[in-house]
Amino acid sequence: MVEHPLWERAAVGSNPIVPIRVLVMKRVPFIVKENFLNEDELSLVVKESTDLFQYLIDGKKTNPATLDGKILKQNMGIHYHDYYDNAHTSSDTVKIFNRKVFEDALYNEFEVEVLRDLCYNMDWSGMMLSYYKNGDHYKPHYDGSFITGLYWFDIKPRKFTGGELYLYNGTQRDNPQHLVPFQPKNNRFIAFPSCYMHEVKPVVISDELANQGHGRFCISVFCGHKST
Ligand SMILES: [Fe+2]
Known about the structure:
Elements: E1 2-12, E2 15-24, E3 31-33, H1 39-52, E4 57-58, E5 66-67, E6 70-71, E7 73-74, E8 76-79, H2 80-83, H3 87-90, H4 92-103, H5 113-120, E9 124-132, E10 137-141, E11 147-153, E12 161-162, E13 165-168, E14 179-182, E15 188-193, E16 198-200, E17 203-204, H6 207-211, E18 216-224
Antiparallel strand pairs: 1-2, 3-15, 4-8, 5-6, 7-10, 8-9, 9-18, 10-16, 11-15, 11-18, 12-17, 13-14, 13-16
The structure holds fe (ii) ion.
């Protein structure tokens, strides 16, 4: 719940301006797409992710969000642009998501007009593959990009529980308490403004099954503007 001061002019005695305060619940804009990739696209993503699985590194070394100097996530991951010299031409996954997000103008589907206008000028994307084993999580944080896209998929039949995404209705300064929970369904994509707080709840899975690739996979698509 966020308080927004509204000032209303009213002729009351000798004081012509009377401040009133109302409580306004912020709404978080988001897009959800089920069955986001077709069969051919999904098999390319699964194949590439299977190949990259052995190269995942400690998520603490993948430019994680922090709070008061403490790293907020525990998982494994790899940035496509770190692995490839030119991910835009070498990675099938990056090519697929760039096409789906930019060429198909996916973010035109945001209901908020100003968000659609801002997305129109986005010209940068960075992508990361993440994997969550037992107990892995990402505490409430925000991302440095403009729009965050998250895509969940399974390489093998999933054997984990938990790992829900909580999307909060505000930025860090709002200290938001209300959230929208999302299940990390296979082949589901969600996008939202990166400045809104979000969280990944702990994953539950045995170590043996997690090591076999039955845990929680997520591809993050960060979009924004070039800094140059
Ligand atoms: Fe994030």
